[in-house]
Design a protein that fits this description.
The protein has 205 residues and is α/β, with parallel strands linked by helices. It has 4 helices and 10 strands; from the N terminus they run βββαβαβββαβαββ.
Length: 205
């Protein structure tokens, strides 16, 4: 698997069709350039010693479409399903599935829904909440991906624990993981050679 080629977020050559922003980013913002577009991300504190640039793709149609197109080009061939966890990975997985001509994609839920019958379940922790969360995969979805070639998709890969939970869930269902992809790799995740991503995103003190 080949790691994505990266460009510096403040390099205008990476976004040739985007005009220079009139206002320079402050210490409270991070200027991100990804998939040919720029976004100012607010820097928020998540604990006493760390801050992150808040990256939210929900509602950002342009960003989802452009990032999905770039990521889809870099995925392995012969994919049966894309799989993501709710909620921010959902629009990305849907658009990538459309581009790849996949009829279905799989969503791991963060709570057990009333319609679920004997779902698969794993526990994960989040970099933003530092609390344990549950991931659930409905029985029909588990049956659908059994023996299938699956790529895991998320908006950001950071500590990797959420991705590991998703991978554990997929493997419990009998799926073959053939790739892991995200728009951004945050912090040390950018050093990994087993993921596909478009840009690195730093952590802040």
């Amino acid at each position: 698997m080949t790691q994505a080629t990266h460009t510096t977020a403040t390099d205008n050559r990476a976004c040739p069709h985007v005009k220079n922003l009139d206002v320079q980013p402050s210490e409270r913002e991070y200027l991100l350039c990804v998939a040919g577009i720029k976004r100012r991300l607010p820097i928020v504190r998540i604990n006493s010693h760390a801050r992150i640039a808040s990256f939210v793709i929900l509602g950002d149609t342009e960003l989802v479409i452009r990032a999905a197109a770039q990521l889809a080009k870099r995925l392995p061939r012969d994919i049966d399903y894309l799989m993501t966890a709710e909620a921010k990975g959902i629009p990305l997985a849907q658009e990538m599935s459309r581009i790849l001509g996949l009829e279905h994609y799989i969503i791991a839920r963060k709570s057990k829904k009333s319609y679920m019958n004997d779902p698969l379940q794993v526990s994960v922790s989040s970099i933003t909440t530092h609390e344990k969360q549950e991931l659930f995969l409905d029985k029909p979805d588990a049956a659908r991906i059994k023996d299938g070639r699956v790529v895991l998709v998320d908006d950001v890969i950071s500590s990797g624990e959420s991705l590991e939970g998703l991978e554990c869930l997929a493997k419990k269902a009998g799926a073959q993981i053939i790739g892991k992809a995200a728009i951004l790799a945050e912090g040390d995740a950018a050093k990994r050679d087993d993921i596909i991503y478009l840009e690195a995103l730093p952590l802040f003190n």
